[in-house]
UniProtKB/TrEMBL annotation, chain A:
The keyword Nucleotide-binding applies. It comes from Pinctada imbricata. Residues 250-359 form the Mannose-1-phosphate guanyltransferase C-terminal domain. Its EC number is 2.7.7.13. This is mannose-1-phosphate guanylyltransferase. Pathway: Nucleotide-sugar biosynthesis; GDP-alpha-D-mannose biosynthesis; GDP-alpha-D-mannose from alpha-D-mannose 1-phosphate (GTP route): step 1/1. Keywords: GTP-binding, Nucleotide-binding, Nucleotidyltransferase, Transferase. It comes from the Eukaryota.
Automatic annotation (TrEMBL), chain B:
This is Nucleotidyl transferase domain-containing protein. InterPro entries: GMPPB_C, Mannose-1P_guanyltransferase, NTP_transferase_dom, Nucleotide-diphossugar_trans. It comes from the Eukaryota. Residues 345-482 form the Mannose-1-phosphate guanyltransferase C-terminal domain. Belongs to the transferase hexapeptide repeat family. Residues 77-267 form the Nucleotidyl transferase domain.
């Protein structure tokens, strides 16, 4: 089996983290985001994976060579000279995808869920048409484009962008399995698969929807990154509770790298991910946060809903909340209050940020 | 007053009326309306409205008279409370009541015989206890005389003239209780004596900036003789940058002037209207200083030592810092020291001996911790006053705030205010006395005040807010008054 992952551009929505690190390599749940997908694809039997990127990231290319070896999979980096949207990259990589007549996977790189690749293959083979897209249920469908399909067999009737009246609560989850013949529908130019390819396939009765079981989140921006982390940790609790941490001061689902150090009288959790070499000093309280590799959180600080970048230093009695994001190597001095601050890499913060703000 | 008013949502005019009502529910209306710190104009009705300070309910006047060998001195003090219970003059700054610092300064004047406190305030246990303790400590007689109604800044002095003149003092000091500073009373006395019998009153003066002088009584003087030539209380245009500190030294001859004004007021204000302010009111500044200026009987003594009004909680934090700094020279024993098993101290910190402060807590600079207060593990306090019986739970962080009597701050909670310190780059600048609200009806950021018996839960943030007594908060608050 083959797969194509739409990695795309610079990941501006996840800045300031993506100023230091290519988005697919930003750790989600102590593992690079892309690796969650790669591992699941390999597990489902993928042998060749094409990464469609629109900018060169040497760090990522090197990292992928290591992953190739570790997972025993061929990783091809398909570089677009100009961004080709969500469909164009398929045309660009068509030589890799059409080597046989087997269907291939296509996925957006920002999504986190229990990847249902094996079921997708079964479902696709069962209906035997050109394409299958995975759909997921959302609470507020009017914010998204929804998919209207036949509940009996899954055949898609139409797509409705931001519906004012309720027509469906299922949205495109950004995971597809497509037969090579779909490539005939795609020109080698900037094209949207959602708007310029799928509606026609649906018209022709060639597109089916499979409903996703379990959690799903597009983690492409900080707020959703944290929500996705909570869902991911909840799913870990069910599937592999041994990976989660327990002990003095640990509350709820907490993922801690073995090399991290946690002091006394702390309260960590619920929903916290602590990366390698992180140091949490005595008396800190951390809830709903991701702390990336090498960061230090000093004593008596209180953090909620934050992403702390690599090698950051958060001083004593600091209060941080409301989706504050620290880029790499940021220092926050003692006793400050950071409310929704987005801090660019290598900054030293000496004054409180009482209202949400970007600090260049 | 119990219900939660959405202060931001009402117009300035309505708000002014409402807040005056709050004050009415306290005690003295007359003084409130007579109070000349009514500066800000209401944008809707173009009328002047009262500047409002919270929490304000009980009006309180305190007068301290100090007798001195055959000369007498007297301290007059006026206050609006920071709490709803304790008279503001007893509010502790640098660990001791504001008027304790006045009385201590008086006690250093050789031959000081008596201190009289005059106020329009029902005496209570706290006041009685305070009087007993200062009497014992300074071996000086201290009495409290209660006005039957608010009598203005000089009415009380006239009313209690027999008490003040008992024992034929040669001079007496009068001090307002809403000022603080390093009072040069001995120097003032030498100056007054040197001026001889011609001087009926010496006013302590200090420098202010041109702009800020408009908020004070302004003094124009003869630079050689220091005679006051012209006096205006809170002028609209610039007069002089020398301002009245609210500390005076009088010769008994002043009573002749007071009597004349008193009788004149009685005649002029004669009416059957019971709602008009008391006819016995005499305003020291307007009724006495203005006519005395230029008569050769009124002088100013200059001081450049620390001085400030304490009308707001922001000023209390500022005064706390300065009184603590003065302790370095006068009472090093009152300042906390670092040592094994003791909490870490940064700069000047007062910790009452009965307070329980965990050794891992970090305090300072400029912190006062009151009686029986409890400061938990890893708590941090900076530029703040923690009053008697308050509890700061583990890891809490308190910055630029006043924590009221028996209030509780939960673990990992942050309580933070904004200092209203004088601009350090402007010589002679004073504490900014901002109005409570901005022109668009928002609360001006200032010191956070947590009222007595307030419960602040764990892990919240209280920023630039004022919480009235006995509230139990349930979440975070920013820039709000919580009634």
């Amino acid at each position: 089996m083959k797969a194509l992952i739409l990695v795309g551009g610079y990941g501006t929505r996840l800045r300031p983290l993506t100023l230091s690190c290519a988005k697919p390599l930003v750790e989600f749940g102590n593992k690079p985001m892309l690796l969650h997908q790669l591992e699941a694809l390999v597990e489902a039997g993928a042998k060749t994976i094409v990464l469609a990127v629109s900018y060169r990231a040497e760090q990522m290319e090197q990292e992928m060579r290591k992953v190739e070896e570790k997972l025993g999979v061929k990783i091809i980096i398909s570089l677009e000279s100009e961004p080709l949207g969500t469909a164009g990259p398929l045309a660009l990589a068509s030589e890799h995808l059409t080597q046989d007549s087997e269907p291939f996977f296509v996925l957006n790189s920002d999504i986190i869920c229990d990847f249902p690749f094996k079921q997708m293959v079964q479902f696709h083979k069962h209906h035997g048409k050109e394409g299958t897209i995975v759909v997921t249920k959302v609470d507020e469908p009017s914010k998204y484009g929804v998919v209207v399909y036949d509940a009996e067999n899954g055949r898609i009737q139409r797509f409705v962008e931001k519906p004012q009246e309720y027509v469906s609560n299922k949205i495109n989850a950004g995971m597809y399995i497509l037969s090579p013949s779909v490539l005939k529908r795609i020109p080698l130019k900037p094209t949207s698969i959602e708007k310029e390819v799928f509606p026609f396939m649906a018209q022709d009765g060639d597109l089916y929807a499979m409903e996703l079981q379990g959690f799903w989140m597009d983690v492409g921006q900080p707020k959703d990154f944290l929500t996705g982390m909570c869902l991911y940790l909840t799913s870990l609790r069910e599937k592999s509770p041994d990976m989660l941490h327990s002990g003095e001061g640990i509350v709820g689902n907490v993922l801690v790298d073995p090399s991290a150090k946690i002091g006394h009288n702390c309260r960590i959790g619920p929903n916290v991910t602590i990366g390698p070499d992180v140091v949490i000093e005595d008396g800190a309280c951390i809830k709903r946060c991701t702390i990336l590799k090498g960061a230090r959180i000093r004593s008596h600080s209180w953090l909620e809903s934050c992403i702390i970048g690599w090698k950051c230093h958060v001083g004593r009695w600091v209060r941080m909340e409301n989706v504050s994001v620290l880029g790499e190597d940021v220092t926050v001095k003692d006793e400050l209050y950071i409310n929704g601050g987005r801090i660019l890499p290598h900054k030293s913060i000496g004054d409180s940020i009482p209202e949400p703000q970007i600090v260049m | 007053m119990e219900s939660v008013w959405k202060i931001e949502n009402i117009t300035p005019r309505v708000r002014a009326e409402y807040l005056v009502q709050v004050d009415l529910s306290g005690i003295a209306v007359e003084q409130w309306c007579d109070d000349s710190d009514i500066k800000s104009a209401c944008p809707d009705c173009k009328q002047r409205i009262h500047r409002v300070r919270f929490p304000a309910a009980t009006f309180y006047i305190l007068l301290v008279t100090v007798a001195f060998i055959e000369k007498a001195e007297k301290v007059w003090t006026r206050f609006r409370p920071l709490s709803l219970e304790l008279p503001k003059p007893l509010f502790p700054v640098a660990g001791l009541p504001i008027i304790y610092h006045h009385i201590e300064a008086c006690s250093k004047v050789p031959g000081m015989r008596e201190v009289i406190l005059i106020g329009f305030y029902q005496p209570n246990d706290a006041l009685t206890k305070f009087i007993n303790s200062v009497q014992n400590e300074f071996k000086i007689q201290v009495r409290y005389l209660q006005e039957y109604t608010a009598l203005g800044t000089a009415g009380g002095i006239y009313h209690f003239r027999d008490q003040i003149l008992a024992g034929n003092p040669d001079v007496f000091f009068v001090m307002n209780s809403d000022v603080c500073g390093d009072f040069p009373l001995k120097e003032m006395l030498s100056f007054h004596v040197q001026k001889g019998g011609g001087s009926h009153c010496t006013v302590l003066g200090t420098e202010a900036t041109r702009q800020q002088s408009l908020n004070y009584g302004c003094i124009a003087e003869n630079k050689d003789t220091h005679e006051i030539l012209h006096y205006v209380e809170k002028p609209e245009t610039y007069i002089s940058s020398t301002i009245n500190c609210g500390v005076y030294l009088f010769s008994p001859e002043i009573f002749k002037t007071l009597e004349r004004i008193f009788k004149k007021n009685l005649e002029e204000k004669y009416s059957l209207d019971t709602t008009s302010p008391s006819k016995e009111i005499i305003r020291l500044e307007q009724d006495i200083f203005v006519p005395l200026a230029g008569s050769g009987k009124l002088f100013v003594f200059h001081s450049n030592r620390f001085w400030s009004q304490i009308k707001s909680s922001g000023a209390a934090i500022y005064a706390n810092r300065h009184y603590l700094a003065i302790y370095r020279d006068t009472h090093p024993d009152r300042l906390a020291k670092n040592g094994e098993g003791l909490p870490s101290v940064v700069g000047d910190v007062f910790i009452h001996p009965t307070a329980e402060v965990h050794p891992t807590a970090v305090l300072g600079p400029n912190v006062s911790i009151g009686k029986h207060a409890v400061v938990g593990e890893g708590a941090r306090v900076r530029e703040s006053i923690v009053l008697e019986g308050a509890t700061l739970q583990d890891h809490s962080c308190v910055l630029y705030s006043v924590i009221g009597w028996n209030a509780t701050i939960g673990a990992w909670t942050r309580v933070e205010g904004t200092p209203n310190d004088p601009n350090p780059n402007k010589p002679f600048a004073k504490v900014e006395v901002k109005s409570t609200f901005t022109n668009d009806g928002k609360l001006n950021p200032s010191i956070t005040v947590i009222g007595s018996n307030v419960q602040v839960p764990c892990e919240v943030v209280i920023l630039n807010s004022i919480v009235l007594p006995d509230k139990s908060l349930s979440g975070s608050y920013k820039n709000q008054i919580i009634l």
